[in-house]
Design goal:
Helices cover about 25% and strands about 25% of the residues. With about 240 residues, it is an alpha+beta fold.
Length: about 240
C-alpha cells in the first residue's frame, strides 16, 4: 500500500478530523461539531475525542495481530471513555462523537470498516462506494430527534461513549488482486460529489490519483467560497486519503 493524504481544518477553527496510516492500514475519524447551545456533559471537544480515540485505534492497528476491526474500535472506545469518566457525564446522549473509517490489508485481502458517514471508495475495475447512510434516513433532524436516534436501534451509530456501537459498523473485504486504488474521506472531502455534484465518484478518484489529495481539498474550498448556502455549514474539515495498491 502506498498512502498519501491531506487534512485541512475549517478556516479559523481547530481540525476535528483525525488521520493516521501505517504500512498496511489507514484510520480516519471525523468529529461531529456540536450545535450551538448544546450541553454535551463533557469537558472535552470533538477534537480531543478524535485524537485520543483515533490514537487508540491506530495503536491497535499497528500491532497487526489480526483482531477483527469492530473489536479494535470497541476496545478503543472503552479505553477512551475511561480516560474521562471521572470528569465528564458519559451518559449524556450529546457526548462528543465521531465517524470511524478503516482500511487494513491482510494477506491477499483488504478489509474495510465504516461507522457513520465518512465514505470509503474502492476502484476494483468499477467504483464501489461504502458509506453508512443511516443518518440520512432519519425521519426528522430536530435536536431532540437526532439526540434520541444517536446510538439507538433504528437510528444511527457513531463512536462516542458506547463500545457496542462498534459492532453496528459496516464491514467487509475485497481481494487485493484487481484492487487498483482506494479513497478514505471525511464528509468534508466528499462534498464535491455528495453535496455539490461537481464530480462523480470516478472523477473524484481521478483527481486524487492524477493531482493528489491537496488538489481535491483546494477544489472543495473553491466551491465552498462560491456557493450560496441555504442550510448547513459553508466549510467543513476536509481529510482525503489516497491508497494505491
Amino acid at each position: 500500500m502506498q498512502v498519501s493524504y491531506v487534512s485541512e481544518a475549517t478556516p479559523g477553527r481547530p481540525n476535528e478530523d483525525f488521520v493516521a496510516a501505517g504500512p498496511g492500514w489507514v484510520v480516519l475519524l471525523d468529529g461531529a461539531t456540536a450545535p450551538p447551545g448544546v450541553d454535551s456533559g463533557c469537558a472535552h471537544d470533538p477534537a480531543w475525542l478524535v485524537r485520543r480515540l483515533g490514537g487508540q485505534i491506530a495503536a491497535r492497528m499497528a500491532l497487526e495481530d489480526g483482531k477483527p476491526l469492530p473489536d479494535l474500535v470497541a476496545e478503543a472506545i472503552k479505553v477512551t471513555g475511561e480516560a474521562h469518566t471521572g470528569t465528564c457525564d458519559l451518559e449524556n446522549p450529546d457526548s462528543p462523537s465521531a465517524t470511524v473509517s478503516l482500511l487494513r490489508r491482510r494477506g491477499g485481502a483488504v478489509e474495510w470498516f465504516v461507522l457513520a458517514d465518512s465514505p470509503i471508495v474502492l476502484d476494483v475495475g468499477e467504483v464501489r462506494v461504502i458509506r453508512d447512510d443511516r443518518v440520512d434516513r432519519l425521519p426528522s433532524y430536530t435536536l431532540e430527534s437526532v439526540r434520541t436516534s444517536r446510538n439507538s436501534p433504528g437510528g444511527f451509530w457513531v463512536a462516542s461513549t458506547k463500545p457496542e456501537a462498534a459492532y453496528e459498523g459496516l464491514t467487509g473485504e475485497v481481494p487485493v488482486a484487481g484492487l487498483q486504488r482506494a479513497a478514505v474521506l471525511s464528509d468534508g472531502a466528499s462534498r464535491l460529489v455528495e453535496r455539490f455534484g461537481r464530480l462523480d465518484w470516478d472523477g473524484l478518484l481521478r483527481v486524487l490519483d492524477d493531482e493528489g489529495p491537496r488538489e481535491l481539498v483546494r477544489r472543495t474550498r473553491a466551491v465552498e467560497e462560491s456557493e450560496t448556502f441555504a442550510r448547513g455549514k459553508r466549510y467543513d474539515d476536509a481529510t482525503a486519503v489516497l491508497v494505491r495498491f
